[in-house]
Design a protein that fits this description.
It is built from two helices and eight strands. The longest helix has 11 residues, at about 25-35. With about 140 residues, it is an alpha/beta fold. About 20% of the residues are buried. A four-stranded mixed β-sheet has the order 1-4-3-2, covered by helices on one side. The two termini are about 25 Å apart.
Protein backbone atom coordinates (compact mmCIF):
# COMPACT_ATOMS: atom_id res chain seq x y z
CA UNK A 1 0.00 0.00 0.00
CA UNK A 2 1.12 3.52 -0.66
CA UNK A 3 2.76 5.10 2.34
CA UNK A 4 3.46 1.77 4.03
CA UNK A 5 7.09 1.28 4.99
CA UNK A 6 8.86 -1.86 3.88
CA UNK A 7 11.15 -3.71 6.25
CA UNK A 8 14.90 -3.30 6.08
CA UNK A 9 15.17 -6.85 4.74
CA UNK A 10 16.00 -6.84 1.03
CA UNK A 11 14.84 -9.41 -1.45
CA UNK A 12 17.97 -11.15 -2.70
CA UNK A 13 16.74 -13.27 -5.59
CA UNK A 14 13.66 -14.62 -7.32
CA UNK A 15 12.97 -17.95 -8.97
CA UNK A 16 10.40 -18.88 -11.56
CA UNK A 17 8.36 -21.98 -10.79
CA UNK A 18 7.15 -23.94 -13.80
CA UNK A 19 4.35 -26.43 -13.25
CA UNK A 20 5.00 -29.60 -15.22
CA UNK A 21 3.41 -33.04 -15.46
CA UNK A 22 4.97 -36.35 -14.47
CA UNK A 23 5.29 -37.09 -18.20
CA UNK A 24 7.32 -33.92 -18.93
CA UNK A 25 9.39 -33.22 -15.80
CA UNK A 26 12.38 -35.29 -16.97
CA UNK A 27 12.46 -33.81 -20.48
CA UNK A 28 12.12 -30.30 -19.03
CA UNK A 29 14.96 -30.98 -16.54
CA UNK A 30 17.14 -32.35 -19.32
CA UNK A 31 16.34 -29.35 -21.57
CA UNK A 32 17.56 -26.89 -18.94
CA UNK A 33 20.70 -28.96 -18.21
CA UNK A 34 21.67 -30.15 -21.69
CA UNK A 35 20.44 -27.29 -23.87
CA UNK A 36 20.63 -24.22 -21.61
CA UNK A 37 23.59 -25.12 -19.36
CA UNK A 38 21.86 -25.21 -15.97
CA UNK A 39 22.95 -27.59 -13.19
CA UNK A 40 20.64 -29.67 -11.04
CA UNK A 41 20.46 -28.15 -7.57
CA UNK A 42 18.03 -30.61 -6.01
CA UNK A 43 15.66 -33.39 -7.00
CA UNK A 44 12.86 -34.53 -4.70
CA UNK A 45 10.66 -37.60 -4.95
CA UNK A 46 10.45 -40.52 -7.33
CA UNK A 47 10.14 -39.45 -10.87
CA UNK A 48 11.25 -36.75 -9.64
CA UNK A 49 8.35 -34.60 -8.45
CA UNK A 50 10.34 -31.39 -7.85
CA UNK A 51 13.62 -30.10 -9.33
CA UNK A 52 15.66 -26.95 -8.81
CA UNK A 53 18.02 -25.88 -11.60
CA UNK A 54 20.79 -23.32 -11.14
CA UNK A 55 22.94 -21.19 -13.38
CA UNK A 56 25.01 -18.10 -12.56
CA UNK A 57 23.33 -17.55 -9.21
CA UNK A 58 19.81 -17.87 -10.66
CA UNK A 59 17.32 -20.66 -10.03
CA UNK A 60 14.32 -22.05 -11.83
CA UNK A 61 12.08 -24.68 -10.26
CA UNK A 62 10.05 -27.47 -11.85
CA UNK A 63 7.07 -28.62 -9.77
CA UNK A 64 5.11 -31.70 -10.77
CA UNK A 65 1.34 -31.32 -10.47
CA UNK A 66 -1.35 -33.89 -11.17
CA UNK A 67 -4.01 -31.46 -12.26
CA UNK A 68 -3.67 -27.84 -13.22
CA UNK A 69 -4.35 -25.43 -16.01
CA UNK A 70 -1.07 -25.51 -17.89
CA UNK A 71 -0.22 -22.57 -20.09
CA UNK A 72 1.97 -24.06 -22.77
CA UNK A 73 2.53 -21.05 -24.99
CA UNK A 74 4.21 -17.73 -24.38
CA UNK A 75 6.83 -16.66 -21.90
CA UNK A 76 7.31 -18.88 -18.87
CA UNK A 77 10.51 -17.33 -17.48
CA UNK A 78 12.80 -14.38 -18.17
CA UNK A 79 16.50 -14.14 -17.31
CA UNK A 80 18.61 -10.99 -17.67
CA UNK A 81 22.12 -11.71 -18.95
CA UNK A 82 25.25 -9.66 -19.58
CA UNK A 83 26.27 -11.02 -23.01
CA UNK A 84 23.39 -12.18 -25.22
CA UNK A 85 25.59 -12.96 -28.23
CA UNK A 86 27.83 -15.35 -26.28
CA UNK A 87 24.78 -17.01 -24.77
CA UNK A 88 23.23 -17.45 -28.22
CA UNK A 89 26.43 -19.13 -29.46
CA UNK A 90 26.45 -21.43 -26.42
CA UNK A 91 22.80 -22.42 -26.86
CA UNK A 92 23.37 -23.14 -30.54
CA UNK A 93 26.37 -25.34 -29.70
CA UNK A 94 24.18 -27.24 -27.24
CA UNK A 95 21.46 -27.77 -29.85
CA UNK A 96 18.78 -25.73 -28.08
CA UNK A 97 15.62 -25.06 -30.06
CA UNK A 98 15.51 -21.29 -30.52
CA UNK A 99 12.74 -19.05 -31.77
CA UNK A 100 14.50 -16.80 -34.26
CA UNK A 101 17.59 -14.67 -33.77
CA UNK A 102 18.50 -11.92 -31.31
CA UNK A 103 15.75 -9.30 -31.37
CA UNK A 104 16.15 -5.68 -30.24
CA UNK A 105 13.05 -4.73 -28.26
CA UNK A 106 11.55 -1.27 -27.82
CA UNK A 107 11.76 -1.60 -24.02
CA UNK A 108 15.55 -1.64 -24.04
CA UNK A 109 16.53 -5.30 -24.23
CA UNK A 110 18.11 -7.60 -26.80
CA UNK A 111 16.46 -10.99 -26.47
CA UNK A 112 16.59 -14.61 -27.53
CA UNK A 113 13.90 -17.19 -26.88
CA UNK A 114 14.58 -20.85 -26.16
CA UNK A 115 11.64 -23.20 -26.67
CA UNK A 116 11.19 -25.88 -24.01
CA UNK A 117 10.06 -29.41 -24.92
CA UNK A 118 6.48 -28.60 -23.86
CA UNK A 119 6.36 -25.43 -26.01
CA UNK A 120 6.88 -22.82 -23.31
CA UNK A 121 9.33 -20.02 -24.04
CA UNK A 122 12.32 -19.29 -21.80
CA UNK A 123 13.51 -15.77 -22.61
CA UNK A 124 16.99 -14.33 -22.08
CA UNK A 125 17.56 -10.59 -22.40
CA UNK A 126 20.50 -8.20 -22.26
CA UNK A 127 19.65 -4.68 -21.19
CA UNK A 128 20.70 -2.00 -23.67
CA UNK A 129 21.67 1.59 -22.89
CA UNK A 130 18.21 3.06 -23.43
CA UNK A 131 14.82 1.99 -24.72
CA UNK A 132 14.12 2.89 -28.33
CA UNK A 133 12.33 6.10 -29.20
CA UNK A 134 9.02 4.34 -29.86
CA UNK A 135 8.80 3.30 -26.19
CA UNK A 136 9.19 6.84 -24.80
Amino acid sequence: MKGTKTSSTRIQQTAAVLQVSSRTIRSMRDFFVDRLGFEIGAEVGNGPSFVTLDRDGQTIMLACRRSFGLRKRGWAAYFWVDDIESLLAEFRSRGAKLKGQIVDKAYGCREIIAVAPDGREIVFGERTETPTEQNR
